[in-house]
Amino acid sequence: MQTVAVIDFETTGLSPGQGDRATEIAAVILKDGAIVGRYQSLMNSGARIPPFIESLTGISNDMIRTAPPAAVVMQEVSDFVGDYPLVAHNASFDSKFWDAELGRIDRKRQQAFVCSLLLSRRIFPFAPSHKLSALIEYANLPVAGRYHRALADAEMAASLFQRLTHELREQHQLNNISVDLLCRIQHAPKSQLTKHIAHARAG
DNA sequence: TGCCAGGCCCTCTTTAGGGCCTT
Predict the structure, then answer these.
(1) Does the pLDDT of residue A31 top 90, yes or no?
(2) Is A39 helix (H, G, I), strand (E, B) or coil?
């Protein structure tokens, strides 16, 4: 499995299109099944965190007031992950914020985004829930810290991603799993899943 | 004007609706 960067955002809300901004980012580098690098930072975008989200994440307006500017943090984390493929739990959410915050510093993502939520629906179809905390419990993986903080969530998404690729190898006798295969699997209708995997095994 | 996320995925579906998941 090639090296990937697993990321997680905390934000002021659900949609950058509605004016929501990032408040914290973490990225961990997953190489040969182990975390070999970590980046984490609060960031100050000037946006106000609603009370509900302050209590959800534990990240307060006081905490981000003294944090480095969002532009500085995004430059750093973008340099940190380089061109490694990105992984996130519910990547449709994190990719929206990644692209929006990167766009503000005139950078553009080049690499693919892999979604551990979409993969888990296919690889763990019988899990009672596919939210991150439920999957960590379902797969008996360690809780890395407080949920809804960026570094803890990124580390847990990384261990979940590692478990998912392991299960995929075991279930389908695959020697090697590429990011390209994961991208095809996560968007494939379940009826075509075996076709994609059989093609990967043959290739 | 009034509304305000949006993609995935299932089903009592496809001329649609609603739950899940992220903060």
Answers:
(1) yes
(2) strand
Task: Please check whether the domain covering A4-202 is classified as CATH 3.30.420.10.
Answer: yes
A117 touches strand B (CB under 7 A): yes
Global confidence as pTM: 0.95
Spanning CA of A52 to C1' of B16, the rounded length in angstroms is 32
The tens digit of pLDDT for each residue in A60-78 reads: 999 999 999 999 999 999 9
Q: Which of residues 83-112 of A touch strand B (CB under 7 A)?
A: 89-90, 92-93
Q: Is A46 left (phi over 0), alpha (psi -120 to 50) or beta?
A: left
Question: What residues does each domain of chain A span?
Answer: 4-202
Q: Mean pLDDT, chain A, as a whole number?
A: 95
